[in-house]
Amino acid sequence: MTPSSLLPLPSSLRDQFNRPLGSLRLSVTDRCNLRCGYCMPEEHYVWLPRESLLTFEELGRLAAIFIALGAAKVRLTGGEPLLRHGLPTLVKMLATTPGLGDLALTTNALLLAAQAERLREAGLRRVTISLDTLHPERMQAFARSGRHADVLLGIDAAGAAGFSGTKLNSVIIRGFNDDEVLGLLEFGRQRGLTLRYIEYMDVGGATRWRMEDVVTRAELLATIEKRHGRAEPVPDPANPAAPAEVFRLRDGTTFGIIASVTAPFCGSCDRSRVTADGTWFSCLYAERGVDLREPLRLGATDRELADLIAAAWQGRDDRGAERRLALPGRGALYQLDGLRADPRREMHTRGG
Ligand code: SAM
Ligand code: SF4
Ligand code: SF4
User: Fold this and answer.
1) 207 is a domain residue
2) How far apart are CA 236 and CA 242, in angstroms?
3) 175 Rama sector, left if φ>0, alpha if ψ -120 to 50, beta otherwise
4) For residue 154, what pLDDT is reported?
5) Parent domain of 59
6) Per-residue pLDDT, 237
7) 167 CA to middle of ligand 3, Å?
8) Which H or E run includes 104?
9) What is the pLDDT of residue 238?
10) CA 13 to chain centre
11) Which of 180, 283, 288, 349 has a Cα at 20 to 30 A from 311?
């Protein structure tokens, strides 16, 4: 059955807060070659069983159903998605799915230099690269990797392969890289890449999270405006669900802030995520997900899977970040035993 045979579908699929199903994050692995302190600070992890990981055919089929239901934007993530063997093959499958509007990848770029060209040829449209520090020794201490140079090569390779509109994501944490706010902006500016600052979130995985360590949107703006003058907000009415607020400086440089902690944007959130084992989460903070792998492997039709997804989306009332903001004395979302009990609570499994 092809996605077109699913039509007609509820073109205006809406959740309990009238939010459309607009974008899908597809995690292709829970493994990673970094150990970022805000995501994987522990020594040992419980991994998803290998046999539970969706095949490319299964991922492609699920993606096609989500796209038919309205999730025209698909982002590949992980763990580190470039660790998934043969990723360009999956990209090629997804790129030709009818109804696809955008196909992007979020990566730490360690392996990007070797793969950028093949990914571009396969039909990947955009890349977002995580870069938290310009100091190799900081990356060594914070993310337990000495491969900073490979990240820089990966960033250059994205440009050389013809990707445009590449974004850099930087999570700013007090005492780690809060003195690099201007340096990272300049790094992006020199390369024509848009930097997006992300507030440090208390997601699963961030077991050491403390509110005191969050460098807030207000602080980021104050630091930037002190050096560069007023940062003018750039509204994007065509893209109301975009998580980043965009600003422009006098010299034309633009940057974004994703203020998930101090100014959550749940009200317009059209995102959901499928883990590499086929569990579908309607919110980054959701306690439970919907198992799509079992019906998939038990022979459910596309229509049955679409009905399952549509019904769950219609019942969605998640506003995780807003609810966290309202909590007094907020601390880490999960302690280690909570994460060990269910690896799907991890950010590196949910995909960010
Ligand atoms: N490994 C890839 C990478 O790092 O780009 C993709 C997966 S990673 C989970 C996706 C995004 O989540 C990254 O940009 C990362 O910085 C962000 N992230 C992870 N933990 C976070 C946290 N505690 N707060 C804010 N952002 C976080
Ligand atoms: Fe860092 Fe991404 Fe790996 Fe998490 S999944 S440890 S954010 S590189
Ligand atoms: Fe969307 Fe949940 Fe994040 Fe709010 S917390 S923006 S509802 S994923």
Assistant:
1) no
2) 8
3) left
4) 98
5) 14-164+267-350
6) 83
7) 21
8) strand 102-107
9) 82
10) 22
11) 349
In this predicted structure, what is the pLDDT of residue 44?
A: 93
Determine contact, residues 125/104, Cβ cutoff 8 Å.
yes
CATH number reported for the structural domain that contains residue 96 in this entry: 3.20.20.70
219 inside domain = no
Q: How far is the CA of 39 from the centre of ligand 1 (A)?
A: 7
Closest atom of ligand 3 to 286 CA is 2
What's the CA-to-centroid distance between 253 and ligand 2, angstroms?
Answer: 27
Q: Calculate the CA 162 to chain-centre distance.
A: 22
| Residue 197 identity (one-letter amino acid) | Y
* pLDDT of res. 15: 97
User: Count of CB atoms within 10 A of residue 178's CB?
Assistant: 14
CB of 74 closer than 8 Å to CB of 23 = yes
Asked whether 32 lines ligand 2 (CB < 6 A), one says: yes
Give the whole-angstrom CA distance, residue 15 versus residue 268.
11
Mean pLDDT by 10 residues, the chain (352 residues): 53 90 97 98 95 98 97 97 98 97 98 98 98 98 98 98 97 98 98 97 95 98 98 90 95 97 97 98 96 98 96 97 94 91 92 86
Structure confidence at residue 6 (pLDDT): 59
Q: What are phi and psi of 341, to 5 degrees?
A: -70, -30
What is the pLDDT, as a whole number, of residue 9? 58
- Angstrom distance (rounded) from CA 158 to CA 112: 7
- Within a domain: 222: no
Cβ of 100 closer than 6 Å to ligand 3, yes or no, is no
Distance from C-alpha of 146 to C-alpha of 255, rounded to nearest angstrom: 28
Instruction: Give domain status of residue 203, yes or no.
Output: no
Q: In what order do the strands lie in the sheet with 73-77?
A: 232-233, 245-248, 254-258, 194-199, 167-172, 126-130, 102-107, 73-77, 23-27, 271-274, 279-281, 290-291
Structure tokens at 163: 């990707």
Ligand 3 center to 79 CA (angstroms): 19
Sequence-distant (≥ 6) Cβ neighbours of residue 222 within 8 angstroms:
none
